[in-house]
């Protein structure tokens, strides 16, 4: 499919102006998607970003159909998305690189729709390009250091590092795991705990990797030029290799000895990764050769931190809301960080639009969005902890299916826009009457009764053989 030229004729129809400004901090995946959806619903959008200029960063990110089915509303992005997806065939391997299972077509991995594997820089660039075509620019070099709200005037706002005070009718904190919005929203920060692991991650030009004959021979494209992704599992080993037409991406999870940092700009030397692979019995030479080919500035050591779920995303006066990683961080093993940030964006924009058309105050729209989203996201956070647990044990057995990618119907068949519309009236009543505790969500595993959990409590309960949030019908 050829992507149509990005022009005014490919923009979606826009709702009439609402005369309401949505101020967004953070031009990542969640912030940009919020800006797009809010624009489509007739809101005026301002978006502030800490980085001084637009830059393409990151390696791979997986986005599910519950997020990207929404591109049906965005004709240009719908076509562009198909053009940029890597669409690889999946192999499960042991730590020696022997292929045990596969090729599995990732396009057929879920009951409905498709899971898209993207180079994050391309996905990010697509969202930015679309936003620019809508006439919305990102304001770079604006680092948000605090949030406030003025309930009487019906405003929320931020202070930047330069001392600038910027207001909006609604403020969205989409500024990632280190957001400062917690001071206003919860009063205290959710503690980030080390999971005990870090992950080396790198992405670079495939031509660099293909210079080595052994690497070239091992990772060839499949018939029709299909990309290949491999998951290697073994005792204390969990790594991935993705070879596409133009990129090579590899990741390797390792016990954290204090070298990793929860930052996407924490670059390290490949010698650290090679020292670790030297301890893995039978780790093949061609995989070490690939690691050695990684350009000097391309290897990141990301610290895998976890945070207990926090149900409060909305400020006391209802003018500021946290979104994406700022509200709920994920371990990569959940495969859901990007997907849930986009689902949040769609749900929030729909709730704001419904509030506007039904003459409901925006603070209740924020509280309804929070009510509709929290339990679902929290289940997926738990899912990431479980998957991670299944991947990083001394007894990792590649033949055991526990590490295989599992995305149940409740995950992929959800539509955050329809869900918000279907449940709106009921939710207005529930929030208006302060009956949130009695609310039952449908976007969670079937039959699940949500019981608040902590990571430590969850692990201990599983060890004792007790039922946990993970014991519902997750199919
Ligand atoms: C540079 C970068 C590279 C990444 N690479 C990967 C990857 O390869 N694979 C993967 O799975 N995930 C990656 N992620 C994380 C992934 O994008 C998110 O986990 C997920 O998409 C949820 O998106 P988000 O919008 O909540 O957060 P993010 O995508 O992290 O976006 C947060 C945005 O807020 C900006 N920001 C942070 N602090 C402030 C502040 N104080 N004021 C204003 N702006 C601020 C950041 O610069 C960033 O643009 C990366 C994130 C970043 C920022």
UniProtKB/TrEMBL annotation:
Keyword presence, Flavoprotein: yes
Membership in a protein family: Belongs to the paxM FAD-dependent monooxygenase family.
Protein name: FAD-binding domain-containing protein
Domain FAD-binding: 20-355
Keywords per UniProt: FAD, Flavoprotein, Monooxygenase, Oxidoreductase
Cofactors (names): FAD
InterPro entries from the UniProt entry: FAD-bd, FAD-dep_Monooxygenase_BioMet, FAD/NAD-bd_sf
